[in-house]
TrEMBL record:
Gene3D superfamilies named among the record's database cross-references: 3.60.21.10
Name of the molecule in the record: Capsule synthesis protein CapA domain-containing protein
Signal peptide boundaries: none
Superkingdom of the source species: Bacteria
SUPFAM superfamilies reported for this sequence: Metallo-dependent phosphatases (SSF56300)
Species annotation: candidate division WWE3 bacterium CG06_land_8_20_14_3_00_42_16
Amino acid sequence: MPESYGATSESAGSAWAEIDEISADIANLRPQVDVILVLMHWGIEYTNKPSERQNEIAHAAISAGVDIIIGDHPHWVQGVEFYGGKFIVYGVGNFVFDQMWSQETREGTIVDLFFYQQKLINVSFRPTVIEDYAQPRLATQEESTRILERIWETSEFVE
C-alpha cells in the first residue's frame, strides 16, 4: 500500500501540496482581495487529530497571508487552531455522506464565519448528525456537546 497517492513522474495521482507554490500563490493574491479563505482537502482519514503535514501547510498558508482555513477529508471532525491571529478549522467532518457505520463518520459541523471590515470577528459551530444515509440534521444538545468536545480535545491556541 503506498504511503501517498501523490502524482509522480512515474505514476498518476493527486496534486501534492507544495508549500512554496501555495505560499507564492497566496502572496500574489493578497493585494487583490479583502479576505482570503482557503478550503483544504487534506489529512488522515478517521482521526480527529490534525497531522503534522496539515499543521505545516496551515502555518505556511497563514504566514503567506491567508485569513482563515477550512479543512475537510478525514471524515471526522478535527481540532481548530488560532495561529498568527488567524483561525484554522482542520476538519469539518461529514455533512452529506453515506458512512453510517460509525458515530464519528456521521458527525460534522457547519461553521459560521462573521466578518466586519475584512476582519473575522466571530466563529460559531453548528454540529450536525447524518441520519438515513446522507440526510444531515442539526445535532441535539447532547450530540452537540459530544461533537464540540471531540473538536476541543485536539485544538491548539497558539499566538
